[in-house]
Design goal:
- It is a single chain.
- With about 375 residues, the protein is α+β, with helices and mostly antiparallel strands.
- It has helices spanning about 1-15, 20-30, 45-55, 60-70, 80-85, 95-100, 105-115, 120-130, 135-145, 155-165, 175-190, 210-215, 235-250, 265-270, 275-280, 290-295, 330-335, 345-380; strands at about 155, 195-200, 260-265, 300, 315-320, 320-330.
- The strands form 2 sheets. A 4-stranded antiparallel beta sheet has the order 4-3-6-5. It has a two-stranded antiparallel sheet with strand order 1-2.
- α3 runs antiparallel to α4.
- The structure holds calcium ion.
């Protein structure tokens, strides 16, 4: 208590006008409505954050009180900050290993069932937003196994922990911490429920939307008057929201996500050859025409759906000690990375969607052959 009083008076000096509104929440703590384990009711950074939010958004006293009361319920999650740290330097990325976590029988079968059960909604999402079912099915499969793993952390706790206790040793700690403060602000401003569960990074629902994505891109796709991304039995809103997200980030209907490439790797090894460095410099940002790739030793078989002016990125997926995998990513590949800024992630989403589509087509073929006599006899009835 002495400690929080100290923080309180220090803050009162620094915040001046915020003094009055701060007074209004002090009795709330005194009555014990916030758990004693919450450091965010009294931490100077948290108080300054709230004061700024109130001022910037010109919140009414009622709204301000609500924001403070909610934040005062946030608990520090000690296990979360270490999860933010990047893999130690020198640990090689391994696409084959990463891929095997997602492109596996259990997830593919769950995807086939999901697609089967929701094919009308997926088709409607494609019609409205131009985004094909396999991409939506790939996202929901990679993110949460179609709602089976939506996260067990309270989003409020995760966001407050990362907003105020982000690990300072992270190479981009300031930027990441600012990001989580923005997400926490959206959570509080839109009065999202303190009990809402999600990932350790604060993402919720089948689609694992962060609060700002929820606010901006989530849609009521089943028309029941509310947006619900968190009920696996009712995935329509999640399906529509994912499609809307990609539509908003510039998904081009009909454009493939990536093309196979052929590389003259022997040429790349020659001393002084800068081709590889040149092509990998823009990373996932599509920057080269197929012709330009070719002039740097990378041959692309361009289908009709990819125009000569369409830009491509050379995507390198490392395989540990083994040779890397290369593909040419299109602008749609880049759009998939807007969901999660990783080419490994995007490729897993795309390949899971393809694997599910293939398994589904196979099942339909064998299923149709299997059921043909029954259908025939039914038709005769
Ligand atoms: Ca709805």
């Amino acid at each position: 208590m002495a400690r929080s009083n100290l923080h309180f008076s220090r803050l009162a000096v620094s915040l001046g006008l915020a003094w009055l509104s701060l007074l209004s929440w002090v009795p709330v703590r005194a009555q014990g409505s916030s758990p004693p384990s919450s450091p965010y009711a009294s931490r100077p950074e948290a108080l300054a954050f709230t004061a700024q939010l109130v001022e910037r958004e010109q919140l009414s006293p009622d709204q301000a009180r609500q924001v403070r009361e909610t934040l005062a319920q946030a608990r520090f999650l000690p296990q979360v900050p270490p999860l933010m740290l990047p893999a130690p330097a020198g640990s090689p990325k391994n696409w084959a290993l990463y891929r095997s976590r997602f492109i596996e029988p259990k997830r593919i079968q769950a995807g086939v069932r999901f697609w089967q059960q929701n094919q009308a909604t997926l088709a409607r999402a494609q019609k409205r937003y131009g985004v094909p079912p396999d991409i939506v099915v790939g996202i929901l499969g990679v993110e949460t196994l179609y709602g089976q793993h939506m996260g067990k952390f309270r989003v409020l706790d995760a966001l407050a922990t990362l907003a105020f206790d982000f690990p300072p040793e992270h190479p981009r700690a300031a930027e990441r911490q600012a990001y989580f403060q923005k997400e926490l602000a959206q959570f509080l401003l839109h009065q999202m429920p303190a009990q809402r569960l999600g990932s350790y990074a604060g993402a919720t629902g089948l689609s694992q939307f962060m609060p700002s994505s929820l606010v901006q891109w989530a849609v009521d796709f089943d028309g029941d008057g509310r947006i619900d991304l968190g009920t696996p039995q009712k995935p329509a809103d999640a399906i529509g929201s994912v499609a809307n997200y990609f539509h908003a980030f510039g998904w081009k209907p009909g454009l493939p996500t990536h093309l196979p490439v052929q590389i003259d790797e022997a040429g790349w090894q020659l001393p002084g050859n800068e081709d590889r460095a040149t092509l990998l410099a823009p990373d996932i940002l599509p920057s080269f025409s197929a012709e330009q790739l070719s002039s740097h030793g990378v041959q692309v078989q361009r289908p009709q759906s990819v125009g000569p002016q369409d830009l491509l990125a050379l995507i390198e997926l490392q395989n540990g000690e083994a040779a890397p995998t290369y593909v040419a990513g299109t602008e749609n590949f880049y759009v998939v990375t807007r969901y999660n800024w990783s080419s490994y992630y995007a490729m897993a989403v795309i390949e899971l969607g393809q694997a599910v589509a293939q398994a589904r087509a196979q099942k339909q073929t064998t299923g149709a052959a299997h059921f043909k006599p029954h259908r025939a006899s039914k038709n005769h009835d």
